[in-house]
Design brief:
The chain is α/β, with parallel strands linked by helices. Helix content is 31%, strand content 20%. A hairpin with a 5-residue loop joins β4 and β5.
């Protein structure tokens, strides 16, 4: 069991960067068929490969709770988190985005804003610091927040845990941006038997 995950669950990781994310989460991955939850890594630069979409279909058939993790986010990349989430939602299944990415002056991702709580998860120092958002942030995210809350309400209680709601979460390896947020969803999955 990892320091980030509160109980024993079996996690399957799919996609480029899976080994690095497993290390960041402090876990060892398992085969999909024995997993309690699956994490599908989708590169903002390379997209989704066919083998990964095949595994997605298997996870859907088995109702395995699944998280879509968007990787390779940088100031130089033309495809940002929101764009890649929309693409993943068309190729896989519709996704929800519980967090939006905030950027520094140079365009680098440095923080996330939680659409449910409107709190900012600031990773600029390399460690997550949670603080309240400013009224300007709240005004900018209001439409995104309304859409997200409507999707979650429409999906019903425990939709993620039942393999029916798929959060898309950004992950920036160098700053660990997204690790705590991924862990939050992993902790919703019931313990392995």
């Amino acid at each position: 069991m990892s320091d980030l995950i509160s109980h024993d669950i079996r996690i399957h990781l799919v996609g480029r960067g899976a080994t690095e994310l497993a290390i960041a989460l402090g876990i060892t991955g398992v085969e999909l068929e024995s997993a309690d939850v699956a994490i599908f890594l989708v590169s903002a630069t390379d997209g989704i490969v066919r083998a990964d979409t095949d595994k997605w279909l298997t996870a859907r058939e088995m109702y395995i709770p699944s998280i879509v993790v968007i990787t390779d986010l940088s100031a130089e990349n033309e495809t940002d988190f929101e764009d890649m989430s929309a693409i993943a939602g068309k190729i896989l299944d519709p996704v929800v985005t519980p967090y939006l990415v905030l950027h520094s002056d140079d365009g680098s991702p440095v923080a996330l804003i939680d659409l449910a709580t409107q709190e900012i998860h600031d990773y600029s120092s390399g460690v997550v610091e949670v603080r309240g958002s400013d009224p300007e942030h709240q005004a900018v995210i209001s439409e995104f927040r309304d859409e997200y809350l409507e999707q979650v309400e429409g999906a019903g209680e425990a939709a993620f845990e039942n393999g029916l709601l798929f959060p898309a979460i950004p992950w920036l390896e160098g700053k660990s941006l997204g690790v705590a947020e991924i862990s939050r969803y992993l902790n919703l999955v019931p313990a392995s038997r």
